[in-house]
Specification:
Layout lengths: L1 H8 L1 H17 L1 H8 L5 E5 L2 E4 H17 L8 H20 L6 H7 L4 H4 L13 H9 L7 H28 L6 H12 E11 H7 L6 H9 L6 E2 L2 E9 L5 H17 L16 H8 L16 H4 L10 E7 L2 E12 L2 E9 L14 H17 L14 H4 L4 E5 L7 H9 L5 E6 L2 E11 L3 E11 L4 H18 L4 H10 L3 E3 L4 E2 L13 H8 L9 E5 L6 E10 L2 E2 L6 H24 L4 H8 L3 E6 L5 E2 L2 E2 L1 H9 L9 E2 L3 E12 L6 H26 L3 E3 L1 H4 L6
Antiparallel strand pairs: 1-2, 1-23, 3-18, 3-22, 4-17, 5-13, 5-14, 5-16, 6-7, 7-12, 8-9, 8-11, 10-11, 15-16, 19-20, 21-22
Helix pairs in contact: 2-3, 4-5, 5-9, 10-25, 11-22, 12-22
Keywords: Cell inner membrane, Cell membrane, Chaperone, Isomerase, Membrane, Rotamase, Transmembrane, Transmembrane helix
Subcellular location: Cell inner membrane
Protein name: Periplasmic chaperone PpiD
Length: 715
């Protein structure tokens, strides 16, 4: 009560604080951010326009869907999604600056040119005409269809399509203004046709540095970077040292796995009292399901997809033949041939009925029982009359396939679909319709066509993984903890040297971004956690941490070797990339100084100075090849120096050159001004898109708040 009383007495102070905060927000929203922290719903801004968490998540979801469909990893796409959002905002802003507008009529008129539709024959009639009215009616009808998930998915897809349309229109409009003057074409022809005959001396960088070593300092690298701020402008990054302690199974672990497999193969299971083993079982799939470390796979595999140990034996083997035991990587395996048949390619379509809490059930309220009843009723109708299939597409919880008439295209037994789905396709003929349950819900599947393929083999594999035992993990853990104790408070060089001395797996990713997803040289499920640890605000250079990889028992020790804020990159983080270039520059300076100090007045004198020889050659400005190297500065010097006069030292790509021009000739090549103009215009147009995007990004005010707000709860 006393506290409340004090607050009442000072109510004027509270009003003042609130008023100041509101004033700060009205005058400058960034001030509000500084006082109360960034809004977790806003991940960044592009020229003042916000990138919201929702639209970023939509873009990330689309990329993950595409990756999944292509059988690619869905992790580590966060940075790509961010770059696409930034570019999309820039394109939209430029599109609107040009006075253009994304109207409904423009959207639908351009839809047939978008890759999503242009590459799908389903959206075109027999004459090749786009079915605009039919497509528009379907997608506009989603809003009132009651299928909230599919409608929301279409809105996300539509936004991506709109950005692609704006980009295409923007690039087309600006590209149409790219012209090539007659003067430009004539100059290009002159550079192409003129040839200079020269004598020259080359002081090769590699040869010079072998006799005159040069040390590249951090300051040398920094000076090089400072002269090229756009090239070396970087995001916030971290330099991390990693020592990896894999939980490799011991010889005892190997023997244990082999003994377990042999027992199941020849002696029998404990549950059957030793009566049922893998050789005499009458239910192979159930035996594998109950006793194997890998699940039973009902798919048919081609010969080349089978383990090498059995691949050459299955063709002539009778059904029921057992192979093994044999070792395959970190597994002991016994295989039994169950069936042989040609593996068909299948053209199919489906309608997915998901239910609440299933992977595809976002926004779905129906229960699993309700989903089954609905799927069974649709399946019965479609089975009786396949022509009615399309009438139920608006109920499908797979909007991607629904947009294509439910089609999944041609699949084979190797297609990465869930096993239950593939089992139905492989076991049923053309024209069959059925309802199949998978982890995603209930699928009404209709098989439209089949083509015979290569011979496929169905094999039951009884597998025992060679896993590290608790005793093995304890040894790994002890080594890792001893290492972190040895390196506690030590320098990074000590950290690296102790790791190498102990023959531990050491790596040093030097330019790790917050949203890279994976660490170069590591690639474990703990990579993201290590990156998050390194970017924690509390983290300081020299900090180290211990990580355990769940499931494998591997241990990782991480050391923070450097913190780089947004701006010019840390010179040491790009040393491997820049050191050879900067070393050549330093060598070039020393070579030029030596030539100047010697007051050499002839090529022979320069050659004697460095123990090399005078050479002859021809150079051309447009294709400046000299010897085995491209040397544009040398070509420029050849046409800039007076005939018979020795040039100053020229810092080339592969060495320092001194030259004397003997003559200039014109080697007229085919092609008139018009042809050259068209060729230059085509080349410029091809380069334009990438250069425009880079220019927009280089000159944009891009604010990235992700590191600050990423782990905050969205409001």
């Amino acid at each position: 009560m006393a506290i409340l009383g004090e607050i009442r007495k000072r109510s004027w102070l509270m009003v003042g604080v609130i008023a100041l905060a509101l004033l700060a927000f009205l005058v400058n929203p960034d001030t509000f951010d500084q006082v109360f922290g960034k809004n977790p719903n806003i991940l960044g801004k592009v020229n003042g326009e916000e990138i919201t968490r929702d639209e970023y998540n939509d873009q990330l979801f689309i990329l993950q869907q595409q990756a999944q469909q292509q059988g690619q990893p869905t992790a580590g796409l966060e940075e790509q999604a961010w770059q696409m959002m930034v570019q999309s905002k820039l394109i939209k802003q430029q599109f609107e600056k040009m006075g253009l507008k994304m109207t409904d009529d423009f959207f639908w008129s351009q839809l047939q040119y978008d890759p999503m539709f242009a590459q799908n024959p389903q959206y075109f009639d027999e004459k090749g005409n786009f079915k605009l009215q039919e497509v528009r009616k379907f997608y506009e009808g989603l809003e009132g269809s009651g299928n909230v998930q599919e409608y929301n998915q279409w809105l996300k897809t539509k936004r991506s399509i709109e950005y692609r349309m704006m980009a295409r229109q923007l690039f087309a409009n600006v590209s149409s203004g790219i012209t090539v003057s007659k003067k430009e074409a004539e100059e290009m022809m002159r550079q192409r046709d003129q040839v200079a005959d020269i004598d020259y001396v080359k002081v090769d960088y590699a040869a010079f540095l072998a006799k005159n070593p040069v040390k590249v300092t951090t300051e040398d690298l920094a000076a090089y970077i400072k002269q090229r701020p756009h090239t070396f402008k970087g995001q916030a990054s971290r330099n991390i040292g990693l020592v990896y302690f894999p939980a490799t199974p011991s010889a005892q672990d190997d023997a244990k796995a082999q003994a377990e497999l042999n027992k199941l193969f020849t002696q029998g299971t404990d549950a059957s009292g030793g009566k049922e083993n893998f050789q005499n079982t009458t239910n192979d799939s159930m035996f594998v399901t109950l006793n194997s470390d890998l699940p039973f796979n009902p798919m048919y595999f081609k010969k080349e997809q089978l383990p090498q140990t059995i691949a050459d034996k299955v063709a002539a083997a009778p059904l029921g033949q057992v192979f093994g035991p044999y070792k395959e990587q970190n597994f002991y395996v016994v295989s039994k041939l169950l069936d042989k048949k040609t593996s068909d390619s299948t053209l199919s379509r489906h309608i997915l009925i998901a239910y609440k809490d299933s992977p595809a059930g976002q926004g779905v309220t129906r229960s699993k029982d309700q989903a089954k009843k609905l799927a069974d009723s649709i399946g019965a109708v479609v089975k009786a009359n396949p022509a009615k299939f399309t009438e139920f597409l608006n109920l499908s919880n797979d909007p991607g396939s629904a947009a294509q008439g439910g089609s999944l295209g041609w699949t084979t037994p190797e297609t990465p679909f869930v096993p239950e789905f593939l089992a139905y396709l492989n076991s049923n003929p053309k024209g069959a319709t059925g309802v199949v349950e998978t982890q995603f819900g209930y699928h009404i599947i209709n098989i439209q066509d089949k083509k015979a393929g290569a011979m496929g083999y169905k094999v039951a594999n009884l597998v025992k993984a060679i896993k590290p035992s608790e005793a093995t993990e304890n040894v790994i853990d002890k080594n890792a903890r001893r290492f972190i104790q040895q390196t506690q408070g030590k320098s990074f060089n000590d950290f690296a040297n102790i790791a190498k001395k102990g023959n531990y797996q050491f790596s040093n990713p030097k330019n790790v971004k917050r949203f890279d997803g994976q660490l170069q040289g590591l690639g474990t499920d703990k990579d993201e956690a290590i990156i998050a640890w390194a970017f924690d605000k509390k983290r300081e250079k020299g900090d180290s941490e211990f990580f355990v990889v769940e499931g494998t028992g591997d241990r990782i020790v991480a050391y923070l070797n450097g913190k780089q804020d947004e701006g010019l990159v840390d010179p040491e983080s790009v040393r491997d990339q820049l050191e050879p270039v900067v070393k050549n520059q330093l060598a070039a300076k020393k070579i030029a100084e030596k030539i100047t100090a010697a007051k050499a007045t002839s090529l022979d004198a320069v050659a004697n100075l460095f123990g090399t020889q005078k050479q002859s050659g021809q150079v051309n400005l447009l294709s400046p090849a000299l010897g085995m190297a491209m040397e544009p500065k040398v070509a420029g010097a050849a046409f800039g120096v007076q005939k018979g006069k020795m040039s100053n030292p020229v810092e080339g790509m592969t060495g320092v050159y001194v030259l004397v021009k003997k003559s200039e000739t014109v080697n007229k090549q085919p092609g008139d001004v018009k042809q050259i103009s068209e060729a230059i215009a085509a080349q410029n147009a091809q380069m334009f898109g990438q250069q425009l995007m880079k220019s927009l990004q280089d000159n944009a005010d891009i604010k990235d708040y992700r590191i600050e707000v990423w782990n905050k709860t969205a409001q």
